[in-house]
Amino acid sequence: MCYYPLKTTYAWTLVEALTWKVGVAILILSGIFSLLFISSFTAKLFSFRPFLYAIIDFNIIGKQLNWKIYLAAFTVLGLELLLGVTFSLHILLGVAFIAAFVLLTCFSLLFLRQQLSKKPIKCSCFGRSDKLTNQKLAIIRNMLLALLALIGLGLQPSYSSYENPHVMTFLVYSALTCLYQMYVEWGYMKKLKKEAAVG
User: Fold this and answer.
1) Start and end of every Methylamine utilisation protein MauE domain (predicted)?
2) In a domain, 43, yes or no
């Protein structure tokens, strides 16, 4: 009696189940990074002026507001928007995971440098805020996200695009991040009005 067909069927079922689980993991990771980068882009855009001064506080490019600061700001905004769109549309995920890892690692190194120099900073990473950034928490968060990007890269089988970009996913994520940012801005304006009334 021959059991090869049964073994082949079992092995194929196992491969299909594993492929499905990997696909779900990639879907979850791409969703996380899509929301992260679109939200970060929207937050920086709504609080562009504080974001410029946050770049100055890092003291990498210069200590005054000049064209280099604006160039750095638009570069970061462009990269975050591009990554948010790429992850939400599920295109070029291999390249996107590499870019996300590099960007998040750079952010972690900047915060680590700031932490070692014992200089406080308001980074305005996810919206306008009067509170100083918890730099240790920011380093841990960015390194964990960088690790997730590496995991996503390991799960991603190729650098090719998908045939059917998830346009609806992009629209939903964009709407969610815009609503969240409007909520943050509304809370900030409400706080300012309350302080003005007390003053």
Assistant:
1) 25-153
2) yes
